[in-house]
Amino acid sequence: MTVRSLLVAAVLGVLASGLSLAQRADPASDAPEQKAAVAAPPKEAPTYAASAAMWRSAEDVNDWIGARFEYDMQRAIRLSETQRNNAGPLPIPAPEAFFGAPRGVCVDLSRFAVETLRTVDPASKPAYVMIEFAPVSIAGNTLRRHWLATFERDGRHYFFADSKRPGHLAGPYGSVGEFVVDYAAYRGREVIAFRVVETYERRTRTMAAKQSRADRP
Predict the structure, then answer these.
(1) Prediction pTM value
(2) How far apart are CA 62 and CA 203, in angstroms?
(3) pLDDT in tens, 181-210
(4) The domain containing residue 89 runs over which residues?
């Protein structure tokens, strides 16, 4: 299915479900709409290593994210395409550093989730999902790419570590494309390309171009 077909399906899904604009996300920001309610304190220890040893599943990691993650708008601007072109890339904190200061943006959060889940439950095949949206401008800075984490269980796909809705676990889905359909509708933004990758360090511009070409009929 092409990206355009996915977007058409997303629109039709919104119309069919009666999803209102009030229920959709602010398309101009990756920041959470509101802080998610935490049912119970997450499993955690004073250190990252001890916490990771305690966790057994994506749900444990996700609960900690929902309770501890804080979005950093200023860092989002510094990591924008405009700022990266002007000043070069910024380092993405390792999981140990992020655990000590759980504040950042989508790529910071997804790195923590993917690398932690690879330690906690490697059989779930944790990976990154890179989504390229049609660009938006915030304070004169262009933002287009969004990162989150995915894993598999019983042949189905799940998604979490989304800076837009920390603590939310989406799934099961039959494919990544099915998730993108729902996510495009939720975000209210056009998806140009998406790709599942093993590391955030690859050149996202090249990946997006490859995905776009692969999606063409």
Answers:
(1) 0.81
(2) 27
(3) 999 999 999 999 999 999 998 554 444 444
(4) 3-15+48-215
